């Protein structure tokens, strides 16, 4: 595919700012909240991570598509991002393990994207003005109609998206004769979390977002897990109720990202929408219990209030984000309950935080 043959497309931000580029994938219009990820690798894992549902992602890495796709490198079935904004989209790819091009993958999954964008300008713009809704469109003849369409899109704040991506029916993962049984609440679970648990001798029953504590307890698990997922944690009252019951009953619980926020909310700690989230694979964290540093994979736009955790009698901060001092991990005092704002399962990203899965296994013993 020659650059000249690509159709014109635009990235239109909620405040009317327009960035021009060329269309990749399918044509039409797609809407989402614009965010950026600084990872140099792992684009396919990011595109299929359900936590990104409803988001238009800007890749700061200058080359996207150059190592193709591989059917094994997915975090859920199909693409979850609402659109991609990139600098240089590669139609050519080169890697032994890839079994297709990103272009074919986008067409197969119906993703609308834009390339040849000045992504450095986009990122510095959103860094300054904060997260906002945006659209990518090839329907560039009527900008006013696009603006009207974008104005109708709901804000990410207050949006329950976990119910859209969660499984509708419970399912099992791993070996049924494994040593530990885990009941996991699926708010948009990444497959690598299930792989990490199964590799540590867990048999997992994955429940839909609407599951009650009683339904999850009927599996007779050694521990409970609350998953990552898209959208605002605040409206997810049923999940907060489940977390509260698990904690009140003194059971073992581990939460990642959205699950971490749910645990905090269940204890009366508020969450807030960040000016810009953390999305990348080199975010520095300090574990306050061990004093050790970790380089971590992150993807979140909301955060737990430090003020509220510090005012709480039963919750403590266990991990802190070293870039901006935000809360990155909490634990319930004297209970086997802890959670982190980042992604110990990586995919993509470093494995520094994989010890948290071991800690969960220890807590289940
Ligand atoms: N990765 C996640 O679970 C993200 C949690 C939540 N949707 C946020 O943006 O903060």
Automatic annotation (TrEMBL):
Biological pathway: Amino-acid biosynthesis; L-arginine biosynthesis; carbamoyl phosphate from bicarbonate: step 1/1; Pyrimidine metabolism; UMP biosynthesis via de novo pathway; (S)-dihydroorotate from bicarbonate: step 1/3
InterPro entries to which the protein is assigned, alphabetical: Anth_synth/Amidotransfase (IPR050472), CarbamoylP_synth_ssu (IPR006274), CarbamoylP_synth_ssu_N (IPR002474), CarbP_synth_ssu_N_sf (IPR036480), Class_I_gatase-like (IPR029062), CPSase_GATase1 (IPR035686), GATASE (IPR017926)
GO MF terms, alphabetically ordered: ATP binding; carbamoyl-phosphate synthase (glutamine-hydrolyzing) activity; glutaminase activity
Chain intervals for the UniProt region annotation (CPSase): 1-180
Catalytic residue list: 257, 343, 345
UniProt: L-glutamine binding residues: 51, 229, 231, 258, 261, 299, 301-302
Top-level taxon: Bacteria
Keyword Protein transport: no
Enzyme Commission number(s) of this protein: 6.3.5.5
Keyword Iron-sulfur appears in the UniProt entry: no
Family: Belongs to the CarA family.
Description of how the protein assembles with itself and partners: Composed of two chains; the small (or glutamine) chain promotes the hydrolysis of glutamine to ammonia, which is used by the large (or ammonia) chain to synthesize carbamoyl phosphate. Tetramer of heterodimers (alpha,beta)4.
The protein's role, per its UniProt record: Small subunit of the glutamine-dependent carbamoyl phosphate synthetase (CPSase). CPSase catalyzes the formation of carbamoyl phosphate from the ammonia moiety of glutamine, carbonate, and phosphate donated by ATP, constituting the first step of 2 biosynthetic pathways, one leading to arginine and/or urea and the other to pyrimidine nucleotides. The small subunit (glutamine amidotransferase) binds and cleaves glutamine to supply the large subunit with the substrate ammonia.
NCBIfam families with a match to the protein in the record: CPSaseIIsmall, PRK12838.1
Descriptive protein name: Carbamoyl phosphate synthase small chain
The organism's taxonomic lineage, starting at the top: Bacteria, Pseudomonadati, Bacteroidota, Flavobacteriia, Flavobacteriales
């Amino acid at each position: 595919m020659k650059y000249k043959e690509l159709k014109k497309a635009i990235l239109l931000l909620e405040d009317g700012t327009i960035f021009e580029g060329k269309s990749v994938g399918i044509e039409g219009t797609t809407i989402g909240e614009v965010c950026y990820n600084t990872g140099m690798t792992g684009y396919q894992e990011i595109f299929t991570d359900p936590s990104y549902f409803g988001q238009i992602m800007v890749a700061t890495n200058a080359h996207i598509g150059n190592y193709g796709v591989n059917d094994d490198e997915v975090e859920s079935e199909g693409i979850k991002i609402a659109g991609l904004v990139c600098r240089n989209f590669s139609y050519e790819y080169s890697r032994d393990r890839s079994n297709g091009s990103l272009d074919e993958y986008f067409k197969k999954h119906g993703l609308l994207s834009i390339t040849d964008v000045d992504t450095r300008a986009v990122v510095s713009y959103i860094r300054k003005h904060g997260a906002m809704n945006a659209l990518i469109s090839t329907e560039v003849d009527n900008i006013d109609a696009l603006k009207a369409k974008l104005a109708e899109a709901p804000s990410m704040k207050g949006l329950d998206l976990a119910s859209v991506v969660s499984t509708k029916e419970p399912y099992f993962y791993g070996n049924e004769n494994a040593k530990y049984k885990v009941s996991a609440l699926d708010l948009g679970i990444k497959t690598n979390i299930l792989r990490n648990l199964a590799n540590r001798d867990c048999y997992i029953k994955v429940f839909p977002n609407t599951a009650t504590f009683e339904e999850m307890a009927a599996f007779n698990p050694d521990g409970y897990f609350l998953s990552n997922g898209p959208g605002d944690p605040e409206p997810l009252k049923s999940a907060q109720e489940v977390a509260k019951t698990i904690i009140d009953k003194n059971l073992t619980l581990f939460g990642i990202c959205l699950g971490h926020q749910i645990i905090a909310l269940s204890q009366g700690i508020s969450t807030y929408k960040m000016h810009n989230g953390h999305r990348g694979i080199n975010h520095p964290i300090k574990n306050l219990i061990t004093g050790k540093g970790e380089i971590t994979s992150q993807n979140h736009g909301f955060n737990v209030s430090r003020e509220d955790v510090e005012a709480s009698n039963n919750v403590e901060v266990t991990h802190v984000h070293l870039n901006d001092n935000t809360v990155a991990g909490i634990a319930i005092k004297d209970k086997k309950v802890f959670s982190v704002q980042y992604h110990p399962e990586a995919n993509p990203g470093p494995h520094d935080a994989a010890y948290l899965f071991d800690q969960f296994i220890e807590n289940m013993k």
